[in-house]
Every structure is written in C-alpha cells, then in structure tokens.
C-alpha cells in the first residue's frame, strides 16, 4: 500500500519505520530542509526525557541501543531550594530505572536515518502542506506542487495542517487550551570541561507559581527551561531586572549562566497548549475506492510537557497503530477506526500532564522544605 505521512518529525519518522516493516511504501512530506545537511537550521535546543513508553517503541525496531547510547540517564530529580539547598528524589528504588535526556534534533536525525535506510521510504523535504481535499486525497504544497494519496497520515505536530482540514468537517470536534504560561530556554554551559551540576538528575527549581528545569546534554551543558507566567516573562524587560530576578530566585543557577542576559533577550517565548480533536480520522468512500486521512502524535493530541510524555506517547501511537493494522489485516480505514480507542489513554495523559505542572512547580518544593533535607551533589 502507498501511504503518505505529512511531517518527518519524531513520530512521522518512527511511524514510517513501522509501516515499512509491514512492506508499505511510505512517502514523508516535510516542510523543513533535511536537518542532516550541513548548515540546516537546528531549531530550538529542546531536549526530551525519553522513558520506557518511548523506549519500548524504539526497541521493537531495534533502535533503542543507538538512541540510548547518545542519551544521559536521569534516575531522579534534583530539587533546588531558593537558598541553594539540594534534595535528590529518586524516581525508583532501583537506580537503573531512569528517564533519559536526549536532544530532540539528534533524535530526529537518528530516526530520519533509520527511516530512509529502509526500502520503500522516501522523504521529500521542503514540502509544506497548505491544502488537503479529504474526499480525493489531493494534497497541495507551498509553491503550487500537488500530489494525490489514498492514505494520508498527519504527523505534522501541534499546529497540524492535516488536522486544520479535518477541523472544518461536520462531526469533527476540536478544542485548544492554552496555559497562561510561556517557556523560554537558557543554557548552563560546561565548566572547565565538566558538567556544572550533577548530570544524573532532572534539575527542578520549584518556585510556587513558576519553575525552571534543566536537563543534561552530551556536550556537558544543561538546557534550562523557564516555565513562567507570561506577565513575569514580559516584566523582565532589561538586563538589571533579569539579573536581580535570577539572583533572588535562582541564585545557584545564576552563577552558572554567563550568557544569561543575551539568551534571555534573544530566545523566543514558546506557548504551552493542549489540543483535543475527535475523531482522529475521516474516511470517504467513492466509486474508485476509499480515501482515509488520520492523525498521530502531537497532531492528534498535543499535551503540555510537564509529564515529559508528548514524544513518548507519540511513539506509543506507532506501536498501537501497528497493532491495529495487525488486527485489520493492513486495511487502513479499519485500522484507523480501531486506533480511535487510544483516545481514552491520551485524554488521561493530557490531564496528568497539567496536574504535574502544579506538582513540579509547587508540591515537590513544599515537601522538600518540610522534609528539610539537604543533599550535596558530587
Ligand atoms: P513534531 O515533533 O512537532 O514534528 C512535526 C513535524 O511536522 C516537524 O518536522 C514539522 O516541521 C513538520 N510539519 C509541520 N507542519 C507541516 C506542514 N504543514 N507540512 C509539512 N510538514 C510539516 N516529550 C517527551 O516525550 N518528553 C519530554 O521531556 C518533552 N519535553 C518537551 C519540552 C518542551 C518545552 C516541549 C515544547 C515539548 C516537549 N515534549 C516532550 C513534547 C515533544 O516535543 C512532542 O510531543 C513531540 O515532538 C511530538 O512529535 P511529532 O512528531 O508528533 O510532532
């Protein structure tokens, strides 16, 4: 079967691998240029916590070893109190149970390599989808190119163009919920060639209404992410205010951020959104056969990042869709119909992710202060 996937991000590439294993021919259309080419825009430096849910999907394709080799295990979280006191909270009694820090761009390149190494997978970069007719399967791309496909799967992220078309159809419900918070990335560089903090932890600075987190990178830096109310982000509108705020609320991190001022000024503010869409697929029958359009990954169910599960859930989508194809004998309309059963699970993780923001920014902190424990990292 010829399958078209829109979006060669994390989930689109992994799904291509699963489908190629089933002997389908997959064409991926990606709006960006090939990120593996020299000089390609590397985008934001987001790093992700990949956990067992995602590793399980990678393992089924033999991709777990290579991905985990490039990852840094984080067996617990390190809480940073305002006075600099550190408290390590293990995720499990067994320290081999860890979540893993990995750069999103590196993981994407790895999955692109895996997909394009398989027979029957082709990626067409520089193809931004701008229009879709779900009845005929006609896809329109920027610069006037068109294609047709019987099976179209939107893996084109939270602001999916495929979903934008489905949203216009009667019977398709859609809702987007924005938080009043934005996120901004900063960096703690390596110090004298070494990690400036313990790399074996996800670092959290819980500050009641807001927080900062930091995940380690293979180059011994940390990518920090502020999750702050929009008004706080906007209020720090000059170097003095930024310095004073960090010195007061994040004194230990402040000392480790030599580029804080330009990074705070130049790095964009990202939005935090939950997308709800139902159903995730539409099939149109005609005299010449059926055309099916479906959604996976963030295109189907983008969630806020506080449970570190967006990509993990997208990977699990691929496993579940593969299972549905088994059950449906590779009939895509039937498989995508079965795949709708997954919505109950993704609705739950969307709620848990929102709840965990309160847990991370507030509750873990109050517990830490009540316990009054101090742990120094090595
Ligand atoms: P995307 O990664 O968004 O990929 C979509 C692809 O489609 C992109 O390549 C894009 O260029 C392409 N595209 C978009 N529009 C078009 C178009 N019109 N035509 C053609 N191509 C198009 N998840 C975790 O599991 N763990 C974490 O720790 C974690 N932390 C996060 C931290 C932050 C700050 C954020 C914002 C997210 C985090 N996530 C995390 C979520 C994770 O990044 C997403 O869930 C994941 O990237 C979704 O993958 P995707 O392939 O569905 O979408």
UniProtKB/TrEMBL annotation:
The alphabetized UniProt keywords are: FAD, Flavoprotein, Monooxygenase, NADP, Oxidoreductase, Pyridine nucleotide biosynthesis
Q: So, what pathway does this thing act in?
A: Cofactor biosynthesis; NAD(+) biosynthesis; quinolinate from L-kynurenine: step 1/3
One GO MF annotation is: FAD binding
Source organism's superkingdom? Bacteria
Picking any one GO biological process from the record gives: quinolinate biosynthetic process
Q: What is its EC number?
A: 1.14.13.9
**FAD-binding domain location:** 2-167, 292-324
Q: Which cofactor does it need?
A: FAD
InterPro entries attached to this UniProt entry = FAD-bd, FAD/NAD-bd_sf, Kynurenine_monooxygenase
Q: What does the UniProt record say this protein does?
A: Catalyzes the hydroxylation of L-kynurenine (L-Kyn) to form 3-hydroxy-L-kynurenine (L-3OHKyn). Required for synthesis of quinolinic acid.
**What family, per the record?**
Belongs to the aromatic-ring hydroxylase family. KMO subfamily.
For this entry, the protein name equals Kynurenine 3-monooxygenase
Source species: Nonomuraea solani
